[in-house]
Amino acid sequence: MGCSSALARLERVREQTERLCEPLETEDYCIQPMVDASPPKWHLAHTTWFFETFVLKEAVPNYKAFDPAYEYLFNSYYEGVGTRHPRPERGLLSRPLVSEIYAYREHVDDALRNLLTSGPEDEWLRRIELGIHHEQQHQELLITDLKCNLGHNPIRPVYLDKPTNPAPPVSSQTTFVAFGGEMSEIGATLTTESFCFDNELPRHSVWLAPYEIADRLVTNGEYLEFIDNHGYQDASLWLSDGWAEKNARGWQAPEYWFQQDGGWFEYTLHGVEEIDLRTPVCHVSYYEADAFARWAGGRLPTEFEWEAAAQSGNDLAHGTFADEAHFHPRPQNPTFCGDCWQWTSSSYSPYPGYRPLEGTLGEYNGKFMANQYVLRGGSCATPHHHYRNSYRNFFYSKDRWQFTGIRLGRNLDH
Amino acid sequence: MGCSSALARLERVREQTERLCEPLETEDYCIQPMVDASPPKWHLAHTTWFFETFVLKEAVPNYKAFDPAYEYLFNSYYEGVGTRHPRPERGLLSRPLVSEIYAYREHVDDALRNLLTSGPEDEWLRRIELGIHHEQQHQELLITDLKCNLGHNPIRPVYLDKPTNPAPPVSSQTTFVAFGGEMSEIGATLTTESFCFDNELPRHSVWLAPYEIADRLVTNGEYLEFIDNHGYQDASLWLSDGWAEKNARGWQAPEYWFQQDGGWFEYTLHGVEEIDLRTPVCHVSYYEADAFARWAGGRLPTEFEWEAAAQSGNDLAHGTFADEAHFHPRPQNPTFCGDCWQWTSSSYSPYPGYRPLEGTLGEYNGKFMANQYVLRGGSCATPHHHYRNSYRNFFYSKDRWQFTGIRLGRNLDH
Amino acid sequence: MGCSSALARLERVREQTERLCEPLETEDYCIQPMVDASPPKWHLAHTTWFFETFVLKEAVPNYKAFDPAYEYLFNSYYEGVGTRHPRPERGLLSRPLVSEIYAYREHVDDALRNLLTSGPEDEWLRRIELGIHHEQQHQELLITDLKCNLGHNPIRPVYLDKPTNPAPPVSSQTTFVAFGGEMSEIGATLTTESFCFDNELPRHSVWLAPYEIADRLVTNGEYLEFIDNHGYQDASLWLSDGWAEKNARGWQAPEYWFQQDGGWFEYTLHGVEEIDLRTPVCHVSYYEADAFARWAGGRLPTEFEWEAAAQSGNDLAHGTFADEAHFHPRPQNPTFCGDCWQWTSSSYSPYPGYRPLEGTLGEYNGKFMANQYVLRGGSCATPHHHYRNSYRNFFYSKDRWQFTGIRLGRNLDH
Amino acid sequence: MGCSSALARLERVREQTERLCEPLETEDYCIQPMVDASPPKWHLAHTTWFFETFVLKEAVPNYKAFDPAYEYLFNSYYEGVGTRHPRPERGLLSRPLVSEIYAYREHVDDALRNLLTSGPEDEWLRRIELGIHHEQQHQELLITDLKCNLGHNPIRPVYLDKPTNPAPPVSSQTTFVAFGGEMSEIGATLTTESFCFDNELPRHSVWLAPYEIADRLVTNGEYLEFIDNHGYQDASLWLSDGWAEKNARGWQAPEYWFQQDGGWFEYTLHGVEEIDLRTPVCHVSYYEADAFARWAGGRLPTEFEWEAAAQSGNDLAHGTFADEAHFHPRPQNPTFCGDCWQWTSSSYSPYPGYRPLEGTLGEYNGKFMANQYVLRGGSCATPHHHYRNSYRNFFYSKDRWQFTGIRLGRNLDH
Question: B409: distance to nearest CA of chain C, Å?
Fold first, then answer.
């Protein structure tokens, strides 16, 4: 990535973050509806902190930090940087003000612009590139956390009106496609043009037994059948931890669903809508995805099965990404990506020969490689340019506030 | 209270609440730093809800509620009104917006004005009077909750600059004054002019053994001696529940105190200040007040001892009330009221013959008469006009975020 | 108390503790069904520890402790003695064995016998007297904790068969008796013969307004009416803390009650029995007692009202005490004491001029004088000789595992 | 397995369980030191319940259950059987008595003997075989739970004296052996003679990149170097969840280790012993194993790497198993099995084509395939005959009370 293209890209991404906040009221910036979901203000500041900490403070001699307190306030989890404001208390800070955070962004953007026009070393270019992808990740989190914020407000405010462009016509039948019975190459292929996170490397061989995989996501209609067939009441369908979690939390349907006057509705970022049976089901935990798959006579695919199949699907049209500003899944034609992140049965762990980045940035991915499950495919809240088939997202098995859905796999020879 | 004086008083009090919010930024209105401390926005709305629910909806035919959702959102604890938004989630609501709450206030003020100019029945006048006192109570809570909000922000913002008017000169010596050995009359005397809560009635007789009581509050200087004498480390000074609470929370000093560079400082609503040894100690729990008193060779007075003594002190100048906009205690001359609420050793319980108000308003006081301790005297956050010597405030023994201090009592004949 | 009578009394009480354990199996000695309820083994050891710590280690030169580890293991809450085994883990100790605890008791009994026959100083006689009363208190706790242990076992084992002696005939009508309108003397009268705890002193004057008090306890039949009248569903009857506690714990009836085949039953130490409508209701919290009283148009008496009335009732037959080995309340004729401890509306606090015992024994009572309520009257688990009208028992408002019942009071002039 | 050999094997295993309990006192049978660790009494009963529920009640017409309440009391986690006594309350049951549990075992053993001598169908033979292996699993848990029970008692009782047979001489140097770069066959090979759990099937192919693996376990001496090098203080070595868990629990060394007079000691089932530097380190969590491996420049092997290597090591002598009644790891020569279960980096998940057993027995393994990590190799508490190289044990990453140790792996070509 050259300096000028880097600058253009940086500006585009930074602006996009702010564009996502345009519909917000000042009050919306401050709320943390649960520990996992940070306030918009925090996302705006933390992405900026990332550039300040890992680029400007190291690359720019005599760089003057915007506010020394921010090092503590907006560090997410980097032990190598020092102590930090406790995550559960991100929603307890009325100050710094939203306007101050925007000024912070401008201060850092200016300094980055100066740096980029000064012919920086490659290392800083690489870190800026990482910071851009980091900010895109947080664009998705900003959307999911905002949905959690507004969606748990009893008056269920609208974030954006629904785009009026009609959904494309969709074919009605899910088809299973056979793969496997061979070695597959898994992981990112690095070129000078491309970017990937350290956790997508090294590319390596995996032997895959024969399997089938669905050509699209499970729909609300299919999921409603599971509900109507007492899927939430039948312990034999559930993992033990999942059954306990479901009971403890009283889950009876995906997050944001509710029943009223005998019908099913869900909160979307366009407000409350009736459940559309053709749309991919969304906001389910790993446990629900796994139970549904068992009920449907299938299973979740591994991340390797998923990636091998997805490589074959590159000619397919893709589903909904964030660029469409729809922020809710839509009925799908055959595709592997878009609309909902797809739970795989693979625990998040390092690829053989994995090496984290050097220094504190090594905390970016590696230290989370335990107790979480890999999700693939991107979602309606993911910037399209940020996505690639080797992308490994990861969340805990109980998490439901992301746009998480289900693609079925099946054993082929049994 | 006549209609026109009621109207004047109502307007004054309603304006005063909003005046207290003038220094706030929009972001400050939304924060709930702990379960006990509600956001300013909530106080603005709940006090309005009180008038709407207990006056307008009953007194005004065809009254149109500002927003039907508010009945649920801004009910504090009235079971008789119905379900309500959970208290721990008051800080999770970005909407209604601050501007909408101000519009709500205007809507209700207009309707109250119409009602008052229409010659309402006495019952509505009585309820408006109650609503005015209710709003004054919440003015104090707004200040204490805001201090909790700003004071727990690592950057410790200033609410208001310190008034420049100098504190009056104070005499340096605490004197103990003897009372008791006789029957005392305790409780409010009702006249047509005066107001009191139901919990101050009926006025009744109590026999008091001889006792002494200090003519002013314990100071920071005296409390520092307790700290320096290892008061926080000596279990023999503490109630059992207090010792456990102190250890669980790691208390080593009053709330808002901290040590830096060998000195003691505290957060005030004017920002961080060095501890002033002459100022009454503030933000201590009942446990700390009790342990200090034991260490000092005294004890906390009962609320009856306190009130009997306070009746004799009516000629004294009073301490700091909210009207001075100082919002922090100041060095005292002999007085019984102002600066800090004073923990008494009396559990909050009904006076003999106590009758709560009729109907849902009976939940105002009576249902809290368990597990809490009575505080007397008013504080620097209490509107002066709201205060009277028979006033019974009450909090749990562990609470420290109110302006709570210590007045010593002593047994006389031992 | 002379040495020989002290010795006789000591032996009688120590034997009685062990007699209470005769029906136990080894396994029963080890269980702690909840934090509050200690294992029988612990009671046997702790009462012995009390004599060893406060008498033998101080009074007997070169006294050899039975096992040095016991100082830590069997200290209940005396900070002055040092650290101790955490209370919630008393049921996690399989060792020392039950047989070792009995050997410990023998070791200490022998040493006490030697001490008492050696003509000890008065201080040691006083402490032995205190230890005897301490052991009697723990006899009651042993019974209540054992009921909790067995009663929460799904197979509900029997502790003792029900004595076959028939209950006396009872009169059917509760009468309210008027008192008050005068000064009353409250607290123990100390004579050379009598014993009392420090919290019963000093005897002092209290002015009591006129009131009425029931001549017996509320019965199961009356309490069932409260249940059938939706007493547990009507928030207007409950204290705010009580309503929250009831909801959190799902209370629908007193502890140990359950419904089966349309009827009400309760676990007793004789096994499961049908609810007897004439028996005093038992195992209710302060909150339930208070709600029942409000529903019944009365209130709980203060401890002073109770004691003043009880002094007048000394000619009455008494109710059931532990000496009858019935361990369950029985239908009552007019009496003030026995069967069930009676919740009063008085918070547990020091009498005017209260002085705790000197030194570590001062922790016996004084440090608990916060957040608890006074109960009066003794119960079917209290040794009769241990009881007196000035006796102040105290528990938290949520506690239900003691034999706690209700006596109604009423304002007279309303 | 024929009927007579099944009977002989059944009797041997059932007797062995009771032999393990011979050193116990009655009190030891009842204790549950933490939720995970069940009382010995429960293990004795539950293993018997397993035979009664899955064999006798189905196979024997008119089988008379020993006690109907046991179906509820001793069900571990089988939803298909019905509700059950809550796991956290297993230590709150003094009844049934230990003697009753032994009578229960005799009752069931008699019935099984009758069944086996009556020529039962193959299905019952298969279930009895499963029950035998189930009981052997619980023999290990009985030992680990007992160690937790005794080891957390402040007086640290001895379970068994240390066997006097000397440990074999050991070579001092750990060697890394290279494997991989080929397809490997993973999983059990079923023959008519052998047994395996459903989770070891089907045998399937896995491609393994080249790797190295240590020929023995990490020793206490090596682990002490990690401690002395501030391994517990260096966040960069830890997984994020591990760092949080370590801090929350205050871990500074493996479970059962403590420092005294400058030296390191550990509780063993033979009592307290000084740390032996040559012995494999034991009682570490997955987090500690992972952090140690990172510190040592290696990583944990996958379960596939482990199994492929272990197949090559079949000629090696094995380490310590439960049959030696040593119940503590001992210094090792090169071996793959025995002494300590070895954490692998593999999340516990189904093999491709995995099928759980039919019916309720399908809950045995499959429903736990989430959030846990696979351990391999057996331990000093595992019956040797119960062990095989394809055996997959699984625990949560935070668990430390099993005999869990560390074998290092390494990437070969980086």
Answer: 11
